[in-house]
Amino acid sequence: MSSSATTTGRFPQDFLFGSATAAYQVEGAWNEDGKGESIWDRMLHEHPDYVRDRQNGDVSANSYHLYKDDVKALKELGAHFYRFSIAWTRIMPTGEAHKINQPGIDYYNNLINELLANGIQPMVTMYHWDLPQWLQDLGGWTNPIMVDYFEDYARFLFERYGDRVKWWFTFNEPSVFAAGYATERQMAPSLNKPGVGDYLASHHVLIAHARAYHLYDKHYRPTQQGKVSIALMSNWYEPRSDSTEDIAASDRAMQFSIGLYAHPIFSSAGDYPAIVRELVDKNSKAEGRPRSRLPVFSKDMIEYIKGTSDFYSLNYYTCRLVSPGITKHDPALRPDAEVSSHADPSWPTTASEWIKVVPWGLRKAINWVHKQYNGPTIVITENGVPDNGKLEDLSRISYYRVHLAEVLKSIHEDGCNVKGFTTWSLLDNFEWNSGYTEKFGLYFVDYSDPARTRKAKASVQFLKQIIRTRELPEETQKP
Ligand code: PNW
Predict the structure, then answer these.
(1) Which of 130, 292, 442, 449 is the most buried (most CB within 10 A)?
(2) Which of 328, 383, 428, 432 to mutate to test the pocket of ligand 1 (most atoms within 8 A of CB)?
(3) pLDDT at 327
(4) How far is the CA of 336 from the centre of ligand 1 (A)?
């Protein structure tokens, strides 16, 4: 078979490929077997109009009952790992550690065992946005007590699953779910306290992450020997021109969307990025507030959070052009960043309004992380594109072809330490505010059929070959 190995190289022998989902997006069974109510259950039962097709995750792909089919699909793909999330409410219906729900615990035991029996490593996200409603009633992530509750939950997961799970992510994309505290009608809990709720939530999420990391480090790592990370939305913000102003705007966009979370954990100095501190403090003062909207870490806390990740988990979908101004349409770009963003009209569009196909942005994002944070090991924990769900998903094949080519360049030409790649998503699933109108799956799920049968799309064969051969097929070669 011809190959492009000479020009772009191959994926290293120890490079891992896998696919991802999240509990609320695939499991269904929202109130079965003792599961508690989450903030997404509550929000979408009360406000179906927050979702384009007025649907929700009540049944979804029914992975709670069909997890064996999911594992079959992963096996057919040749995946080395499966990144899934645990629904806190399935294990602890209220989020409290003294009230546990055995059928929920059994479900994840069964899934983990089924994966391992098929030679697939489980990678577990502890929190992919579905906070127990009971904890939200206490204020959710705006309440510092949430750090204790999260630590209890993390301890329980390490205790029960850590003998078999060696890859942990505390949180998925705090920059995106913190928007639920800043906006309305989008992410749960839809709190609409922009510039206050989002920073407060982010602050406590960072402390909760560090708490779980230290817990693992001290009590579980010695025997379990796993890794702990946090998955960060890491889209690229390209300067609109090479003017000093636009380059500075690009830096601000990266620092507000990524640095806010990554700098405290991955930089050698720790704490929030200086520019974030400076701008939020300045704006808070100008608003006449007695203190900054961005909470302050003590010196001890800066040290406590610093270094609490064993590798960098990078989620990438798209890119924006930026210049000085204000944007309203990007959850991760807060007004304090003083950045306006837009998509270049020449970039290929997709079924999703916000995702334009900009593969070189992935290479730039990888390189930015590499330079900012001292060349960490990077695992790409999400990358993908939606369409309308057809089986001949040629646009998905082409999206992965060009993005994987950039990953190869970042490894072989730029010397970045990229060790893994994760497709979002294994299955067509519930795409938050877009409901079932945007399909990200490598597998088609028939939502008109109560059996929710899965069917491989063409991209499965394409990716399967890449995983097996560790190289990208020629552009001209039909999958
Ligand atoms: C991620 N943005 O969400 C999530 O991790 C997944 O649950 C989700 O299905 C997937 O990407 C596709 O949307 C994001 O506006 C949501 O930049 C919004 C943004 C990025 C990621």
Answers:
(1) 442
(2) 432
(3) 80
(4) 22
